[in-house]
Amino acid sequence: MTDTAVAPTPQADLDEARWLLPVYAHTPVEPVWGEGVTVHTRDGRALLDFYGGHAVALLGYRHPRLLAALGGQAEELFFQSNSVPLAVRARAAERLVRFGPAGLSRAFLVNSGAEANENALRLAFRHTHRSRVIALEGSFHGRTAGAAAVTWKSQGWYGFPRTPFDVTFAPRKDLQALRAALGPDVAAVIVEPVQGMAGAIDLGAEYLAAARELTREAGALLIFDEVQCGMGRTGHPFAAQAYGVTPDLLTTAKGIAGGFPAGALLVTDEVGQGLKTGDLGTTFGGGPLACALIEAVIDAIEEDGLLPRVRQLSRLIRETCQVGPVAGIQGEGFLLGLRTTRPARAIVDELLTKGILAGTSGDPNVVRLLPPLVLEEAHVAALARALSEVRP
Ligand SMILES: Cc1ncc(COP(=O)(O)O)c(C=O)c1O
After folding, report:
1. In angstroms, what is the span from residue 58 Cα to ligand 1's centroid?
2. Confidence band (pLDDT; 50, 70, 90) for 14?
3. Arithmetic mean of pLDDT over the chain
4. Which residue among 141, 231, 234, 360 has the greatest number of ligand 1 atoms within 8 angstroms of its CB, and so is best to mutate?
5. 44, part of any domain
6. Which of 182, 190, 244, 324 has the highest count of CB atoms within 10 angstroms of its CB?
7. Cα–Cα distance for residue pair 285/111, rounded to 1 Å
8. Does 359 map to a domain?
9. 114: CA distance to ligand 1 center in Å?
10. Separation of 54 CA from ligand 1 center, angstroms?
């Protein structure tokens, strides 16, 4: 990969600015096609994608399994809602439940991470008849009313007159604070086992196991938000399995369908018990295209042996990429934070000039890596080389 300067503003940027609300900062590249881990831009550059479109491109680009599943299902049946049974939906739900931690036996299929969390919170209130939720400092759970209410510092953009329920934020990895915050009115504790937006902060097996115990004792439910860290990204199906801790509810989305909008909520029999027609609902969730792709993603992870590869290459990144401006590496699997000696924004920009797409995070000194699970050794070597050429 050759060194190329960051291009001027792409035409698509100017065209978007004419018609869309100006709510996103743009990286100055316009990808037009991709293959494997590489995206090709309109101005002819080839970039190694270590960010995966916010963790969504789980299998990279043009993956044969995704193309076959999407094409095949589109030919057969493009859409039908949840008002009719579909074999592909039943198969996707079974695959997901079997992929998830033992004990979470039922799925509800939705369209996004926020929608999955919204429904997880709704079920927690229904199940416990309680009114407060504990979330952690640094958390990100989405932008809908309930999900944003449990998102740290969402007050800056919340946009609704008030939150729909009471929330207590506890410092992360602080068991004493969690114990103190719990009380008879707490319906649920919601955590990202590896906090993504915060900069790939691993809460660790010990904290999560203790949180499991504390919530059980307090009669509150434990929700794992694995929207970003789930679907193989930790090198295990979910962080729940990586840490050996089973929550009462687990949400996932992002890469679940390799880039097609989809999300899911997995729950225990106990939480699912008593639910009846109309208690939850969604139009597009569980649509046939999404379901065919969920199946294809799980097939790829399981049949192509991607989980051990993630663990192995994650180790390789840790061993070889602590160079140049990288002072330390945190996180798990392919949800990694490079702790940098200079502002992460500048380093992400410099990496782009060297053909590497990476991301920032909520921590101004953490570069976030969320590469596709199909990453190879040569890509890690290219990243290490690029980082070593960046001024410390
Ligand atoms: C941990 C986590 N939860 C929830 C969400 C919200 O997901 P979505 O944008 O699909 O609604 C995100 C998105 O970044 C996330 O990282």
Report:
1. 15
2. confident
3. 97
4. 141
5. no
6. 190
7. 5
8. no
9. 6
10. 9
Of 220, 201, 200, the residue nearest 211 (C-alpha): 220
pTM of the full predicted structure? 0.97
Output the ligand 1 site: residues, CB below 6 A.
Answer: 54, 112-114, 117, 140-142, 192, 196-197, 225, 227-228, 253
Asked if residue 277 has pLDDT above 70, the reply is yes
CB contact at 8 A, 168 and 134 = yes
Indicate whether 128 belongs to any domain.
yes
Place of tokens 């990496």: 351
d(CA 342, CA 122): 42
Instruction: Give percent of the chain with pLDDT exceeding 90.
Output: 95
Higher pLDDT, 249 or 6: 249
HSE of 185, CA atoms in CB hemisphere, 13 A: 8
Q: Look up the domain containing 285 and give its range.
A: 65-303
Count of domains in the chain? 1
Alpha-carbon distance 231 to 227, whole Å? 8
Which residue from 154, 174, 178, 172 is spatially nearest to 330, judged by alpha carbons?
A: 172
pLDDT bucket at 7, cuts 50 / 70 / 90: low
pLDDT given for residue 1 in this prediction? 42
pLDDT value, residue 3: 44
Q: Which residue minimizes the CA distance to atom 13 of ligand 1?
A: 142
Q: Tally Cβ neighbours within 10 Å of residue 341.
A: 13
Q: Nearest CA to 208 among 237, 235, 172?
A: 172
Own/partner long-range contacts of 19-27 (Cβ < 8 Å, ≥24 apart): 27/352, 27/357
Q: In this structure, what CATH number is given to the domain that contains residue 184?
A: 3.40.640.10
Distance 140 CA to ligand 1 centre (A): 7
Strand order in the sheet with 132-136: 106-110, 263-267, 249-252, 221-225, 186-191, 132-136, 166-170
Distance CA 167, CA 145 (A): 12
What pLDDT, in 10s, does the model give residues 334-369?
999 999 999 999 999 999 999 999 999 999 999 999
Buried-state track 175-192, b at ≥16 Cβ within 10 A, e below 16: eebbeebbeeebbbbbbb
Atom of ligand 1 nearest to the CA of 139: 1
- Using one digit for the tens of pLDDT, what is the confidence trace for 198-234? 999 999 999 999 999 999 999 999 999 999 999 999 9
Whether pLDDT at 9 is above 90: no
